[in-house]
Amino acid sequence: MLKERIRELEVISKQLDGTSTSRGEWTEDVIHAGLSFLDTLRQQKTYFNPVHDQSNNAPDTLWEPQETGVPMQDLLRTYQSQIWNHGINAASGGHFGYIPGGGLYPGALGDYLAATGNTYAGIAYASPGGAKMEEAMIRWMNAIVGWGSEAGGTLTSGGSLATLTALIAARDQYISEPGQLEHACIYMTPQAHHCIRKAIHLAGLNFAKIRSIRMNQDYTMNLEDLAKHLADDHSQGMIPFMIVGSAGTTDTGVIDPMQEIAGLAHKYGTWFHVDAAYGGFFALLPELLPSFKGWEKADSIVIDPHKGLFLPYGIGAVLIRDRKKLFNSMRYSAAYMQDAEVDAMDYSPSDYSPELTRHFRSVRMWLPLKFFGINTIRAAIEEKHLLTKYLYAQLNQRGWDMGPQPTLSVFLFRIGHDPSTNELNRTIASLIHQDGSQFISTTTLEGIFWLRIAVLSFRSHLEEADLLIQLLEASRQKAASIKG
Ligand SMILES: *Cc1c(COP(=O)(O)O)cnc(C)c1O
Hints:
By secondary structure, the chain is an alpha/beta fold. It contains 16 helices and 14 strands.
């Protein structure tokens, strides 16, 4: 009876593995869909206006699993029509909004390998090669900062989780008794990314005091104000716990004065955290590296390969100058892990990460980096930096009112100098979104509504930049005529 039932079930469950032939067909269907998406990318919109978007009205049965299976080609049709043609097309070279990246195709192929082998690379014992691969990715990023073998880190799903990981390590260094929390002070400007506040909350640091540091005219951190806050807190017996500096803010792409902040952090024994999620990989360019000087004195750095390395979304990293500090917070053990302890001397990613079982995400980084070579990636980063300067100069020439010169690959611009033209600029933005061939995002600083360009899709080249200029000019004229 028992065996009979098992045999019955086996017939069904063997469908999960397919056969060599059926696996080939599934793969061909999926690869065909993916490649035709890429082949037609230039004809696709970058943004499909959600006001007219039918996908919100699509029946739930499209997504909900049902008792019986659906042919692969039907599923792919649903995917193509509901996912790829709605919202922001983040693969498009016309994506100049938020922080784009593009998603290098070999990154997808790396994911394919990782998932096909279902490799578990959290512990050296389970995958010595996989652990070494992740260690090499971390070591390479640490070397960009100028750190050696005493440094460590971990790959995360993105910058937000990397930030949380850094803050937990910092917390464990400084806060050992319950009463200390309300004396701990965190220093950052209003331009610090909102994931920092979220991480403060998630790390249980809600009762810490957040000191909002004044900014200079170019939105970098004002050092006098920082020094004053640190001195005040120190003299009042507070704990100057952490300074958060940005190496490439999301709004304007500026870099806080790293060297000076590091000096103050050293003076007061404060943890120095650098948010380089967006900007970090620009340090690969010899001409921009000096702008980062001082970040090597940081205690922790967050950097996002899914931004500056153009990898598919879902990979961030935290780097820690003294790897022991991360290890102390993240290393746990249990009886059922005893076989793995044999090789505890080897580097195991899970000893530095809040995750145990995790995506083997280093493959999506290793494969493109090794395949193309760092030179190719560096050239693409330099091209984006120069494209940004080109766009800035072109728009300036055409009479747009410009925000500060771009440091990396982000800048603000608008029509007019004060809030009285906010509405006009809002209209320009909404005309661009309605058109959808290119995409930009917007921000508001001190009551002024700004248009914003971020160049970081590896598919953005001169042609896309020129199309964007055309679209901006046309939208500006149209907005003026609507207004008049
Ligand atoms: C994108 C970004 C983050 C958050 O990273 P995610 O990968 O989106 O979680 C943090 N800081 C800066 C400066 C960013 O640009």
